[in-house]
Amino acid sequence: MNHLLPKEAWAWLQAETARRAALGQDAPLFVDVRMEIESLYVGRPPGVENIPWYEYPDLTPDPARFAAAVEDEAGNKERPVLLICRSGKRTLDAGMALEAAGFKEVAHVVHGFEGELNDAFKRSSLNGWRFDGLPWEQM
């Protein structure tokens, strides 16, 4: 699994999308593994697909279900997949599940969308997608 800082992930996503378009291939699949409510209300990068690693009320990951849902969205296991979550922790487990399921190219966004907690227990103040000023949208 590739570990990309937010700005690296955004640059890779743009470059790989252009490269693959020139070859007539689908762009990488950008997956937000947070629960749907997190993705909608906290915000998310544009163009990201929400496929939760786990969902309320169970809050229990089902790696096989997750990998099957990603494969359904991707169309095949050859398509590159970029994962994002709140802080970059869930994507590690989700990425390992995808690799175990046979996905060939998996990357995740280190520090995720909101980043690590600061000393006052606040996010988006040290690192992460939003902190880096990358594009995002909110419901």
Commentary on this structure:
- The protein has 139 residues and is an alpha/beta fold.
- 34% of the residues lie in helices and 12% in strands.
- A 5-stranded parallel beta sheet has the order 1-5-4-2-3.
- The longest helix is centred in the first third of the chain and has 17 residues.
How would you briefly describe this protein structure?
This protein has 139 residues and is of the alpha/beta class.
Radius of gyration using CA atoms only: 14 Å
The main sheet comes to: 5 strands, parallel
**Topology pattern, helix = H, strand = E:** EHEHEHEHE
Structural class: alpha/beta
What best-fitting shape do the alpha-carbon axes yield?
globular
Helix content: 25-40%
- Taken as a percent bin, the fraction of beta residues is 5-15%
How many β strands by DSSP?
Answer: 5
Return residue spans where pLDDT drops below 50 for at least 5 consecutive residues.
Answer: none
- Summed up, the helix count is 4
Strand line-up of the largest beta sheet: 1-5-4-2-3
